[in-house]
């Protein structure tokens, strides 16, 4: 700093054997002594360590560790664990591969439906109207992601199928790729798809085909998805004038994507006509209770129904896919 010179550091005496500070009185200073005097007598070191029966051998340490596997099992960490159903993505569910090319094509179609819709619902994180609804949508997205992982793993590597395919290689319905829009738009999309998915998984679970194990587990999750969408449809449709108007617009806008759901898919052995009749009856009854009514427009768009299953998608899907695949493509081979 110009003409300023740093002062030489002043040497400090060692902390041990320093003279004690004189007290308040006129007494002489105490004799020099160590700062930390040695403890005398018996030092209690505690009793023998009794290993908890829930800990792994030779891992008697802190409960939480900076490693993947914790030494304390779930009963010691979670309150009342094991009360719910087993998740879809369990080893017994993923053990059996899809045997035929037809089954593989069906697994990709159903897996893409779940994958794309899970990403769309995940976009609500941090933007939902209320915190409780943000958690509910995130849970539904995670359920769908678990289904997608199981289905895509029947075909090959789930990460490669999700992040390295081009747009035309996806076989999802055009309905699930539609943007979230406002909350009413999301609820109507969820009502249309979850009602269809519940009927589909119920049929697959009863059929005993290659997708029966997955469907038997997933149908319980999808029943909650359908109930969640139904309750919000009734609440918004029969609510304020604003919520009613928004629900009407959403029902009309998404109605043209519903016809594709019941087009035949190779490897999905269900009665499409019976499913479609049951879907129309269920959705129609909910819409009437919500004072919305069934839309009168066509149930297919400018393209023939089934376009999404053929790899033809709407414009918003390309933008969504670019966002979903960006990180994986930017850092290929990276791992946590």
Q: How is the topology of this model organized?
A:
Layout: H1 74-77, H2 91-94, H3 101-122, H4 131-153, H5 158-163, H6 183-207, H7 212-237, H8 241-255, H9 272-289, H10 315-330
Helix pairs in contact: 3-4, 4-7, 6-7, 6-8, 6-9
Helical segment tally?
10
- At CATH level 3, the topology of one domain is Ferritin
* Rg over C-alpha atoms, rounded to the nearest angstrom: 32 Å
Q: So, CATH architecture of one domain? A: Up-down Bundle
Specify the overall morphology: globular
In percent terms, what proportion of residues is strand?
under 5%
| Helix share, percent | 40-55%
Q: Which blocks of ≥5 consecutive residues have pLDDT under 50?
A: 43-83, 90-99
What do we call the CATH homologous superfamily of one domain?
Ferritin, core subunit, four-helix bundle
List its salient traits:
mainly alpha, 47% helix, Ferritin, 336 residues, 10 helices, 0% strand
Describe the protein's architecture and organization.
Helix content is 47%, strand content 0%. It has 336 residues and is an all-alpha fold. It is globular, with a radius of gyration of 32 Å. The two termini are 47 Å apart. About 15% of the residues have low confidence. InterPro entries: Aromatic_CoA_ox/epox, Ferritin-like, Ferritin-like_SF, PaaA_PaaC, PaaC. It comes from Streptomyces sviceus (strain ATCC 29083 / DSM 924 / JCM 4929 / NBRC 13980 / NCIMB 11184 / NRRL 5439 / UC 5370). It holds the Pfam family PaaA_PaaC. One of its GO terms (biological process) is phenylacetate catabolic process.
């Amino acid at each position: 700093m110009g003409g300023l010179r740093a002062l030489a550091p002043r040497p400090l005496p060692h902390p041990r054997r320093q003279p004690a500070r004189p007290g308040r009185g006129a007494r002489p200073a105490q004799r020099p002594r160590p700062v930390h005097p040695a403890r005398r007598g018996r030092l209690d070191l505690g009793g023998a360590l009794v290993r908890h029966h829930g800990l792994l051998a030779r891992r008697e340490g802190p409960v939480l560790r900076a490693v993947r596997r914790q030494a304390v099992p779930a009963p010691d960490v979670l309150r009342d664990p094991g009360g719910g159903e087993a998740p879809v993505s369990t080893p017994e569910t993923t053990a059996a591969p899809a045997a035929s090319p037809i089954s593989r094509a069906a697994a990709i179609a159903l897996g893409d439906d779940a994958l794309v819709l899970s990403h769309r619902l995940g976009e609500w994180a941090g933007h939902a109207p209320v915190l409780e609804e943000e958690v509910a949508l995130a849970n539904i997205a995670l359920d769908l992601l678990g289904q997608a992982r199981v289905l895509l793993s029947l075909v090959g590597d789930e990460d490669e199928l999700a992040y390295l395919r081009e747009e035309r290689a996806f076989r999802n319905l055009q309905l699930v790729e539609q943007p979230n829009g406002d909350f009413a738009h999301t609820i109507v999309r969820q009502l249309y798809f979850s009602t269809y998915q519940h009927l589909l998984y119920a049929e697959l679970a009863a059929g005993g085909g290659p997708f029966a194990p997955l469907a038997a587990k997933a149908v319980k999750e999808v029943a909650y998805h359908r109930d969640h969408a139904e309750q919000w449809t009734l609440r918004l449709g029969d609510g304020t004038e604003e919520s009613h108007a928004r629900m009407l617009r959403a029902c009309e806008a998404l109605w043209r994507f519903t016809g594709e759901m019941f087009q035949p898919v190779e490897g999905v052995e269900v009665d499409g006509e019976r499913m479609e009749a049951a879907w129309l009856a269920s959705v129609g009854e909910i819409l009437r209770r919500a004072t919305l009514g069934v839309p009168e427009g066509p149930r297919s768009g400018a393209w023939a129904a089934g376009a999404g299953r053929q790899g033809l998608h709407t414009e918003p899907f390309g933008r969504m896919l670019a966002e979903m695949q960006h990180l994986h493509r930017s850092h290929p081979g990276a791992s946590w």
